[in-house]
Amino acid sequence: MNPVLEFDHLTLNATVQGRQIALLRDITFTVHPGRTFGLVGESGAGKSMIGRLISGLLPPGFTTGSGRALFEGTDLSTLTPRARRAQMGDRIAFVPQEPLSALDPVMTIEHQFAEHFAHRGIRGRGVRKRILEWLHAVHLPDPPTLLHRYPHELSGGQCQRVLIAMAFSSEPRLIVADEPTTALDVVTQATIMALLREQQRLHGAAVVLITHDLHLAAQICDEVGVMYAGDLVEQGPAHAVLRDPLHPYTVGLRNSVPNIEGPRRPLPTLPDQMPGMLALGDLPGCRFAPRCPVADRICAAKLPDWSEAEPVHHVRSAPACRRTAHPAPADIAHNVARDGTPVLELASVCLDYSSRVGFRRHRVAAVRNVSLTVGPGEFVGLVGESGSGKSSVARLIMGLEQPTSGRIMLEDRDPSRLQFVFQDPQSALNPRRSVLSLITQAFEAPGRHVTDEARNARALELIRETGLPQDCLPRVPSQLSGGQKQRVNIARSLCITPRLLIADEIVSGLDVSVQAQILNLLLRIGHELGISLLLISHDLGVVRYICARVAVMHRGAIVETGPTEQVFANPSHPYTKTLLNAARVQLQ
Amino acid sequence: MIGDGWKLWVGGVLLAVLLAVAVFAPLLAPHAPGDQDMLNTLLPPAWLSGGSADYPLGTNSLGECILSNLIFGARTALIVAFAAATGCMLLGTTLALASGYLGGRTDWLVSHLVDLWMSFPPVVLSLLLMVGLGTGVRNVILAIVLVDWTRFCRVIRSNVIQTRRRDYVTAARLLHLSHLRIVWRDILPAAAPLIATLFSLQLGIAVIVEATLSFVGLSVGADVPAWGIMIADGRGYVHQAPWGLIAPMIAIFAAVLTFNLLGDGLRATLDPRLRLSRT
After folding, report:
1. ipTM for the complex?
2. Which residues from A are below 8 Å from B when comparing CB atoms?
3. Helix ranges, A223-358 (H)
4. DSSP A291
5. Gap from A512 CA to chain B (nearest CA, Å)
6. CATH, domain A5-91+172-323, list 3.40.640.10, 3.40.1790.10, 3.40.50.300, 3.30.450.20
7. Do A420 and B175 touch (CB under 8 A)?
8. Confidence at residue A370, expressed as pLDDT on a 0 to 100 scale
9. CA distances, A77 to each of A1, A69, A175, B202 (Å)
């Protein structure tokens, strides 16, 4: 059978600051009809660049070098955008990352869908019937009323269903889905992936799924290709790549993701993070070599060739790769509560928001009757979907909101012994302050002033504790990588050693290899400094990895709480079961 | 694509020239301001027939040297412009910080005050103020400050509100830093590029307002050389001696252009978003 999509030693170049840099090197893979090919990699790996190349949306200044990208025999890289639209418009469809922003906010669902059909010359009476059929096919509830809804009246998952229906309705040969579930909740993610798979089986289209999640790709895809810094480093049958990864990077990527079952093994951490676009020009050999635990001089000098490990399982490996160590499974200890009075105690806390629609006042209960304790040195996880009230609880504890009823008790009267780590370091760090001034900002509070030498000394201690490079003190946030920014963010909260740290989704924006670094950092400082942690997260694996106890929130209330292992092994509340099942589908 | 960097350079050089002229006026000007030569009234510039090398740009109806008046006029214009722009900046920024950072009632009060203030036609307001205050350099400056502070206040307030919503300000509050320190270290630096740009644009506006007021005789006293007064004088003799009108107009034009270029250039160099889009 002829492949739908075939990349044949394709190279993509860009001119950055006067230098020509190969953003994609020697990309070779094929996608056959009815198959799903997963492109996996962390941000900056170049996987979205392949998606843009297929769709003809390359940024200006990006040109294809040697090699070809064939879609049903036509070389995509030689087509002009206009010719591409004319020839490929119907045959390649896209499912975007942000469903809500992909739909026009001022058009009803029927209107958008009808316009989509009109592009293909389908108009008139039958259109409404066909739209209803499609909405039905993607399991949307009550299609007739949905027709007259606007995108903002639908949930993110429903919008994504509409977009999937649109994508398949033009009977394409190839569908490119770029992180289609990243913006959605865990439970919704699983159903959307199942839907994508089901529609693909029905219609026999080929799918290229772009994702950062190796486990998700292994679950959904037939074949996967793992990308690192513009190179495809390993590809083959999805289960083989996940089960027996051969490339050191794939091994690292697989092991960086915390599990929700099995032994709690320590996450191995790769140092640093993926090189940026400018650094690529200085890496002629294997681009993973600087971070690779087993690399030697040969790796850094020359791009390794493909070798076939097993039939159809290919890896771009050098001799050194064979030394890759697979960590032995070992159970690590949790940071459990030490003796003493709890550092934090919430007793039946409620928080109502009142909003006004017209002349009528509505009261919305954001937090309902929440009781929670955090013991000294204990790591507690608060999990739930977005909108479940997790962040409202954090704001209540920080005193940014006042509870409508109930009590919040802190063991330490001094409010600075309670610290908060913000989710988005981009917004949480003043871009005009240096690292030195940021991490020792607490000394600027009245009554805490110290000499410049003392401030400097504390800053040095803090960067050592949080694993920041020695020379980073005079730098400003824009000169740091994402992982380093999050470390600065954490270092700031440690300046006056806190009793309790509250961390709101602090790893959700990070790549898995950087996430593993930050999680290990939290475990270590908790252990060394005896700090308690309340971790707010939607990621069950992350919570299981570092939290001794977990509380599950649903619609503003805590529905289940207990030791993490116990809750994960024997969930009692139906909602906890749903959450765990959704996560398990992905991690199988 | 040509960036906006050149505007900063050209504006800067022009400003340096303007400042030099103002500072060294007594050395540069061929005559003292107000020196009248009744024998040589309404002379054309030196390069036209009938002109005299003694009066490079000719004389006005009172026999005063136009070039000298122009040079001493630059002093008045710059003093008024810098003093008025500084006043606008201090008053507007202070109120904007209070209003944007504190929010609530303070914000309500300041915002409504600005709205109310801006609903007066600025020309009428400044004329009324000048009538009330009387002429003189100090009063012109005061009048311009009282009319134009609202622009600073409005623009900077919205910037302050944007910054206040960032997590780093919440983080500083959670570290229990004092409000003054947060404003000084975290809010004001974010607004600084905007303040510099507005200041530069305000310099240009102040030059025009001052010229307008002196044109109607409600600015500096009649004994102080000012470009607006020169235009008013030259207007009556525009057919006999057009240079009495043209010269001060060019001076005003050049000064305003200088400040606007400088403002545009500052905005382009200091605004990180514009800097990003260029690279």
Report:
1. 0.77
2. 398, 400, 415-416, 419-420, 422-424, 427-433, 441-442, 444-446, 492
3. 238-243, 248-256, 297-301
4. G
5. 24
6. 3.40.50.300
7. no
8. 93
9. 23, 6, 18, 52
